[in-house]
User: Fold these one by one.
Assistant:
Number 1:
Amino acid sequence: MEISRFTALTWSHTVSPSLHLPQPLFAREARRLRVWCVTDQSSKGNQMIISVTGATGFIGRRLVQKLQAENHSVHVLTRSKSKAELIFPVKDFPGVKIAEEPEWKDCIQGSTGVVNLAGLPISTRWSSEIKKEIKQSRIRVTSKVVELIKSAPVDIRPKVLVSATAVGYYGTSETQVFDEQSPSGKDYLAEVCREWESTALKVNGDVRVALIRIGVVLGKDGGALAKMIPLFMMFAGGPIGSGNQWFSWIHLDDIVNLIYEALSSPSYKGVINGTAPNPVRFSELCEQLGHVLGRPSWLPVPGFALKAVLGEGASVVLEGQRVVPTQAKKLGFSFKYSYVKDALKEIIS
Ligand SMILES: NC(=O)c1ccc[n+]([C@@H]2O[C@H](COP(=O)([O-])OP(=O)(O)OC[C@H]3O[C@@H](n4cnc5c(N)ncnc54)[C@H](OP(=O)(O)O)[C@@H]3O)[C@@H](O)[C@H]2O)c1
């Protein structure tokens, strides 16, 4: 079975309502988060203006909430204003500017920083057209952002670009440990990540670039977990495949905080792995998930079931890589969730 390549890019976020899983974050949740964000981190004092591509996605939505809670200005760069306006209604997100592509230039010029998260989700069936679009969507948006930053007059040019990439950069292995110095893998997702990263690095030398190689993001409202939980409920959970494959995860709060730090701290530059300090084998993830859901972890979830909900993106979970956050630790980044057990408890509570 193959699930691990999906660790590298992203999951789409459909959740079965019948399972009473958390619903999308809107007003009530946004208010709760505002409190969380404000109490969670001290403001650095300097107000930033941040343009975000992919802001309407799983990570982006939470990042926008965090930036707003810390009193920064946010420009949502989207393909669809009407979709973004539903996600960020004015009454809950006053001052958030929403812009479609022709207006991106005006948003980026004058921004302090840009966060680049856009890309077609990988958890789909991978026809050759889809594979092309998984790569091209990322290269296209990243190139556009880089061109707009480069062409901005110096006095209104953003100072920092924080661009997403993924742990799929390293390829997969059951035995190796990967840090930021490790070479890239040979598979399709490794190739996507290499090209995505090299496109972001084409921005001018005076712009600080942080490339965040993101692991599987665990959060309430989407991502891998939202898709896996219904399967656990149906099959009583259990390791998928041998269970020996590695699962390099990170809690949504931590990836958002890491991106936030990368925006505001000049020492954050180059490649930074966005993974928790303690990746787990898949069998352990399943065991912990079983505990938290109150389901014994003994009946393996068949690979075909996972592929049915995740498409070839399931391969990200069925293979895997053990990625450690050496740079984030060197930079002194403080993880709220170092252990998957604590992350799952918080998410499923
Ligand atoms: N979530 C994870 O576990 C994970 C792991 C590793 C890496 N990553 C990477 O981190 C980034 C953000 O992840 P996420 O989970 O927040 O992603 P997401 O929920 O899938 O959102 C990505 C956003 O990208 C834009 N987008 C979608 N299809 C596109 C296309 N064909 N062309 C251009 N833009 C498109 C959409 O924004 P608009 O519709 O507003 O334009 C969408 O909201 C992604 O690039 C992902 O690959 C995520």
Note: The radius of gyration is 19 Å.
Number 2:
Amino acid sequence: MSTAQDGAGATTAPKHPGTEKFAGVEPVMNATDLVAGYLPGVNILNGCDLVCYPGELIGIIGPNGAGKSTLLKALFGQVKIHSGSVTLGGADITNLKANKLVEAGVGFVPQTNNVFPSLTIEENLQMGMFLRPKKFAERLEVIYDLFPVLADRRGQRAGSLSGGERQSVAMARALMMDPKVLLLDEPSAGLSPVRQDETFIRTRRINKAGVSVIMVEQNARRCLQICDRGYVLDQGRNAYSGTGRELADDPKVIELYLGTLAKDVDAS
Ligand SMILES: Nc1ncnc2c1ncn2[C@@H]1O[C@H](COP(=O)(O)OP(=O)(O)O)[C@@H](O)[C@H]1O
Ligand SMILES: [Mg+2]
């Protein structure tokens, strides 16, 4: 069941369909009624809601300019939240600065400019650990286990890597701090289909290893295939939400956001 939340029936519809099994569980992250924007008086988010329970992989899709990146930035203290709230494990983190959020257990991988090109892979990973240098060796081992390719190339400069490899470095760096929740902004953007697939598989693997993930994606169909639940954002508001499968099968979502080929692609 997906839910349109801008209609007259909005008050009775559940905000987060698909979360019934988490009744009584403290969400990892919970954003309520977010109104946020870059400039005073200009709101980009107009009342967004998003919840992520322990172990979930959450997908956020929607048209260009819908506010997906703005939502992630608001969760990561980079866009001013004018009203509404964000909690992490039940504690209020609304408008905390990014460094405080990293310390509290939020990892963020922006879409672009997410590695230090002149530093080696290992130096990039070290930058991810500036808050806990003593844990570096221990975390490095865990991360190289997840990303064996990075271990092989640890001395190579990040600037000389392909787009997909840079994306791995960026994700690995965020994971160095062992975050409770990882925010990913379009990890598959700009990659070839094969590399895109690798990115989705890796994201799922990281999630299965116990990290809750909130992922914005332009590859909506693929995103809905792998996420537990998804949110469709439109004009800074939740348009639909539900399990990945429900959204992928929802005729309205298909018509408005996935295109008519969605069914065929899904079946293949
Ligand atoms: N740094 C910024 N300053 C002012 N407006 C911005 C900035 N970044 C994005 N916006 C505006 O916010 C809206 C949503 O953008 P964004 O969150 O990037 O959308 P999406 O990620 O869904 O494509 C757009 O209208 C965009 O022009
Ligand atoms: Mg974006």
Note: The radius of gyration is 18 Å.
